[in-house]
Amino acid sequence: MTLKNSFILFCFLLGLVFIKFTAPTLSKIFTSNKNYYEFSDFKSITISNQSESLSIEKHTDNQWLLNKLPVSKTSLSMLESSLVHIAESEIMTNQTDTHALFNLKSSSHNVSIGFKDGDLISFNIGKKGPFAGSQYFKYADDNTVYLAKDYLSYIFSLNKSYWYDYTILNFKNKKLKLFEFEVPDSTFSYVLEDGEWFLLVNGSKAPVEIDTVNSFFSSFSPLVADKIFHISELSPDILLKAKFRFKITTFNNQTYELMFFLDKDQSFYVINASNPKYVYWLKEVLFTDGIN
Hints:
By secondary structure, this protein is of the alpha+beta class. Helix content is 20%, strand content 38%. It has helices spanning 3-29, 73-87, 152-155, 160-163, 210-218, and strands at residues 42-48, 53-58, 64-66, 69-70, 90-93, 109-115, 120-128, 135-139, 145-148, 167-169, 176-183, 186-193, 196-201, 204-207, 223-224, 227-230, 244-250, 255-264, 267-272, 278-282.
C-alpha cells in the first residue's frame, strides 16, 4: 500500500470515528417536535404582544367568537391545518442564549391555547425561517427552539379583521327556486316553474333568460361585508326602517332573508334574519342600481 493510499484510508477511518461520536448530537438537531394537538379539543385561543391582544373562544354550539362576533371558518381551517406542521417542526437548538437571535423574547408574539379539559399550552413566535413559509417558535416552559414549516405569525394573527367572518350570504352550489325582492312601494320576484324562470312584477308575469337570472344571483353571492357589529354596539335608530329586503328559497325549502338599512349614499347596514344579533356594513351595494 502506497503512502498516498494509506493517508486516504486513514482519513476515511477518521471520518467514520467522527460520525460515530457526533451522530447523537446531529440526530437531536433534526428530531421533530411531535407534539400534536387536536383542534376539536381547543376551547380558547389568546394571542398577544407588548401592545395588544385578542382572545377567541368556542361556545356550546361549537361557534367560535371574537368580541361576540363570529370567527371565519377559513381562518380556523388554516389554523387546524397548521397543527400538523407544528407537530412536525424541527428542533434547532436547546441553548437559551440563542433566543434573541430568533426574536423569541417573552414579550414577542405569544399564543396561549386552552383545552376543554382545562390544560393550557403557550408558545412564542419568533422571526421567519430560512425558507418561504417557515418560522421559529418555542414553548413558554421549554428552552428548545423549533422551526415550523408554516408562517405562524399569519396563522395566529393579531389582526382582528383576519378572524372575523364577514360573510352575510353564500348560496353557492345550492339550487334556487324563488327570489323575492321588496321595496316600500313595489315588489318583484324571480320564480322557477317547470324548469323555466319568470319575472313577477306587481302581479304581472314574464319569462326571463337564465343568463339574466344567473347574472343577478352572482352579483351578491357570496355577499361579503366590509365591517361587522354586534347589534348592541349600534343605535336602534339606525335599524328603524328597512330600505329594502329580499328572501331566497332553495329547492329543499331553505330560506335566506336579508334586510337592508340605508346608511348614506350606497352604503347599507344589513341584517340576516337567521341571526339578527349580527349587523353587517356594506360600503357599496351595487345590485340595487335602478331600484333605489
